[in-house]
Design goal:
By secondary structure, the protein is an alpha/beta fold. The chain has one domain: Nuclear Transport Factor 2, Chain: A (Roll), CATH 3.10.450. The chain is built from four helices and seven strands, in the order E-H-H-E-E-H-E-E-E-E-H. The protein has helices at 9-31, 34-38, 58-70, 137-146; strands at residues 2-3, 41-48, 54-56, 77-87, 92-102, 111-119, 125-134. It has a seven-stranded mixed β-sheet, covered by helices on one side.
Amino acid sequence: MSTHTPATPAREADAAAIRALLERSRTAWGRGDGAAYGEQFTADATDVTYTGTIYRGGPEIGRAHQALFDGFLKGTKLSLEITELRLLGPDTAVVLTRGDVHKGRPKRLGKLATYTVVREPGGGWRIAAVQKTGRKRLLEALSFRLQPATRPAAH
């Protein structure tokens, strides 16, 4: 994981708190606990799902996810790997993750998510926005082959 901020004890503590926030959301998902999942979001958060649905606010995100956990996502786990964490100021960060939803072991972490997280007045961190996207490896490879200038710089 890369972190694009100077390493100070305060910044390292913020990064650890943000990692813990995402771990709480992952754990709530694994328990099928929509309320706990929704609590990780701000009251005015946006969640743009993999299918393109937009949920607004922690309570709605939790309610909708509970319906999913009780239905076709029953018994699933969420795997997350933080690939980049950027602290943009004292109260805002952007986190890029690779992950997937699965039963058993994940085959591949084929979904990407961008989280915007914010420090709330009490000092805790919450998710203000998340955008989930499926990675299209074949189309990506084709694009790079046909238009090499579209390949991102190595990190």
